[in-house]
Design a protein that fits this description.
Helix content is about 20%, strand content about 45%. It is an alpha+beta fold. It has one domain: Immunoglobulin-like, CATH 2.60.40.680.
């Protein structure tokens, strides 16, 4: 009798533990950190992984310092499940003037698992400084992510990226101007 009682406590504890374990519902950017020079392109890949609890999808808002980066484009990865099919839905973000890309949307009525690359953001570095590009759940117009299995709202782990825009080294620029100047002087002497 004591064995059955102890076994029921252990099994109950395991069930309770299993019910509280968080599911891997992740959306993140890669690379997590990069250094670029002013006027260089900045590429960030957007990834998702819902292998523990497939998602119907939703939207992501992306925030960046518009004084350091200028948004150029977002290109979806066309190998995503549902791409080009009636069950899939993919929406370009709306560019807002304060450094927000609102409502980048993706989903599939069959459920998306992962890991999958959603697509690639392209920015241009316009000023030096440190920029944390962050992600968060879209509020309007797409709202929360929902489970394809239970139709319950999902909790998502968002991970952004850090972009360090560094100035062009002055010594390298001066060296190039100096070399150009020597070339001009040499041409004048030859004439």
């Amino acid at each position: 009798m004591l064995k059955k009682f102890l076994l029921s406590i252990v099994l109950g504890g395991l069930l309770a533990f299993n019910a509280t374990v968080s599911l891997a519902n992740d959306v993140w950017l890669t690379p997590a950190e990069q250094n670029v020079k002013v006027l260089d392109p900045v590429k960030l890949d957007l990834w998702m992984d819902f292998h523990d609890d497939p998602t119907l999808g939703s939207g992501v808002d992306t925030f960046y310092n518009s004084g350091l980066l200028s948004f150029v484009s977002f290109e979806f990865d066309t190998t995503l499940p549902g791409w080009g099919k009636p069950s899939g839905a993919y929406y370009q973000p709306t560019v807002l003037p304060d450094g927000e890309l609102n409502g980048l949307g993706f989903g599939d009525f069959g459920g998306l698992t992962g890991p999958y690359k959603i697509g690639t953001f392209t920015f241009q570095a316009i000023n030096k400084g440190k920029n944390n590009v962050t992600l968060q759940q879209n509020d309007i117009p797409l709202g929360e992510f929902y489970s394809a299995n239970t139709f319950d709202a999902q909790v998502i782990n968002f991970k952004g990226a850090e972009v360090n825009v560094i100035p062009e080294p002055v010594s390298a620029i001066l060296f190039l101007f100096g070399m150009d100047g020597l070339g001009i002087c040499k041409k004048k002497k030859e004439e």
